[in-house]
Amino acid sequence: MSIEISALDLDADREEWNRYVERGERTNPFYRAEALAIQADDTDTTPHLLAGFKGQEAVGLFPVFEYHKGPITGAFSPAPYSWSVYLGPTLLNVDKLKQRKADRRTRRFLEGCLEWIDAELSPVYTKFVAAEFDDVRPFTWNDYEVTPGYTYVVDLEGTEDELLKRFSSDARSNVRNAAEEAYVVEEGDGDDVERIVEQVQARYASQDRPFHMSQAFARSLYDALPAGSIRPYVCRVDGEFLGGIVVVESSTTRYRWQGGVKPDADVDLSINDLLDWYVMRDGLRAGLERYDLVGAGVPSINRYKAKFNPRLETHYTITSGAFGLDVLIDRYRKLR
Question: Contact 141/135 with Cβ under 8 angstroms?
Fold first, then answer.
């Protein structure tokens, strides 16, 4: 039986789409319809919610954003410069299939989506990021360029003490020797989401680097998504906010989305070590499997992330067409 590709309506089919997202084993809150709507609004794009069906069974999802610059059209997943954790294609109900059937289903689903994109959007440029989607061969077979990227992942397994013992010696010391009465690390609220993003903005500005994500965008996601999808972890001393990390949480994984910048406060605490530890510890207690540090491509930052003894995972950037459109979009976002 062939796989049929349907474009679900963002409003009318919202509940149906979200049910499929919740059933996906490698989805995250950014796949949800309400998050796609916020990303589309923030990037001036049109979302297309592609779903593959084998009969009545949903077998895959592929949210795609249509972007126009004059007469030129681009197709993206995630949306261009949207600050999504991860999007791209994802499969449902494939893990129990034998390899031959899994390969066939993956290829038919992806090629069906690519045919829909070509027929309905006719993009001159496409850019997809497949971060938690392992089989990107159908893209190469269809003449897309596939470039590897990397992230660090900490497996949340064993006891809390065993997890901590896997850290580097300085990270262990920073956690164990911090006087508990001197600080508070806790999960905050929507206001703390904005505080963390504001701190990141200030850090980038001090380095004369662009940072286009708005506090309103992050707060909108916090307010719109189900409780627990966006978790702002904050560190306070004497009630004063010193730093934080905004965590995105799926059914299996915590993602280190925003924050964790070097704070300006002069205190005898390794604030970010404590924040990351509490995020991991609480994730372990909640039965989650992974802490994705979201990125392993910047040597200066990698040195910090590597202290938690993560393993390296590969994701892929998939492109086709005129690269110049990507540059135009970057300039447009900076002007906004």
Answer: no
Beta bridge partners of 177: none
Q: What is the pLDDT along the chain (336 residues), one digit of tens a residue?
A: 589 999 999 999 999 999 999 998 789 999 999 999 999 999 999 999 999 999 999 999 999 999 988 888 999 999 988 889 899 999 998 777 788 888 898 999 999 999 999 999 999 999 999 988 989 999 999 999 999 999 999 999 999 999 999 999 999 999 999 988 899 999 999 999 999 999 999 998 988 888 889 999 999 999 999 999 999 999 999 999 999 999 999 999 999 999 998 887 778 899 999 999 999 999 999 999 999 999 998 888 899 999 999 999 999 999 998 756 666 555 544 433
Residues 86-101 as b/e (b if ≥16 CB within 10 A, e otherwise) read bbbbbbbebeeeeeee
User: How many C-beta atoms surround the C-beta of residue 157 within 10 A?
Assistant: 11
Q: Which domains does the chain have, with CATH numbers?
A: 4-149+316-335 (3.40.630.30), 157-288 (3.40.630.30)
Question: Can you give the pTM of this predicted structure?
Answer: 0.93
